[in-house]
Design goal:
The protein is an all-alpha fold. It is built from 13 helices and no strands.
């Protein structure tokens, strides 16, 4: 073992002793432990990652950067698969190893066509370590004006807001029916398909196309709403029939009681 590697190994052991990895902290690998013990540039990625959608879903450093997350001495050894940080033009391929469909949508868009020519990459909008979930909140003036004016982005966001609201509302209604024992499988699949269709718009920057596609999705969501309204109507009829049956039973009981009193 070289002197440099021996020193690195000794330093790592010291760090592990001073800052032990908490039990049951599955996402806290030797990468996180070492970086947490550093200052400046080395420490910088830790907190953003801890607050990211990646950390929330158990995605840690080695899932993106490779390396051996269980062996501090060899964690950054290329022989253990360590990739390091990608160059700007390689970022879509780097993220696209997991986000295959999203990479395809991005490369087809005006954003993707500007790759390597000053255009945005995945990290421009989603962050590099504090990865943010794809949501309407990402289409905001602060983020978009890093590259261009917000006007077109505002039109896109407005077109997508109604779809987002409808998807959220229909999801809650389906969950409620499911909790009552209704077979919602077919409707859930239809909603899932429309949600995926909606998500592809997040990387589309053609305002006319976003507006047109949002209109088509709205049409399909209206059909789903109609289907849910029919289920609602059935429940109301059952409730009314049940109430009527209880009322009739009570009336019959009262009449029977009066008849008994009359002839007793």
């Amino acid at each position: 073992m070289s002197t440099a590697r021996s020193m690195m190994y000794g330093l790592t052991l010291l760090v592990l002793t001073l800052f032990p990895i908490p039990r049951n902290a599955a996402a806290e690998t030797v990468c996180i432990q070492c970086h947490t013990a550093q200052t400046g540039r080395g420490l910088k990625p830790v907190k953003p990652w801890q607050e990211s959608i990646h950390a929330e879903n158990g995605i840690s450093c080695h899932h993106c950067h490779g390396g051996d997350a269980a062996d501090a001495a060899n964690a950054m050894d290329p022989a253990r698969g360590f990739l390091g940080a990608p160059k700007e033009t390689a970022i879509p391929d780097f993220c696209g190893r997991c986000h295959i469909g999203i990479k395809s949508d991005y490369l087809k868009s005006a954003h993707g066509h500007a790759l390597g020519k000053g255009g945005p990459t995945c990290v421009t909008c989603h962050g590099s370590h504090g990865i943010k979930k794809a949501a309407l909140e990402l289409i905001n003036e602060k983020t978009c004006t890093q590259c261009h004016s917000f006007e077109r982005a505002r039109v896109i966001r407005t077109a997508m807001e109604q779809t987002e609201h409808s998807l959220t509302t229909l999801t809650k209604r389906l969950d409620a029916f499911k909790a009552k024992g209704v077979d919602t499988d077919a409707l859930e699949k239809r909603l899932f398909a429309e949600r995926n269709r909606y998500h592809t718009l997040f990387h589309e920057v053609n305002t006319a196309k976003v507006k047109a596609e949002s209109g088509l999705i709205a049409g399909e969501l209206d059909k789903l709403k109609t289907a849910l309204d029919k289920i609602d109507e059935k429940f109301k009829k059952r409730k009314m029939a049940g109430a009527a049956a209880v009322g009739a039973a009570l009336l019959a009981a009262v009449l029977f009681h009066l008849l008994r009193k009359t002839y007793s």
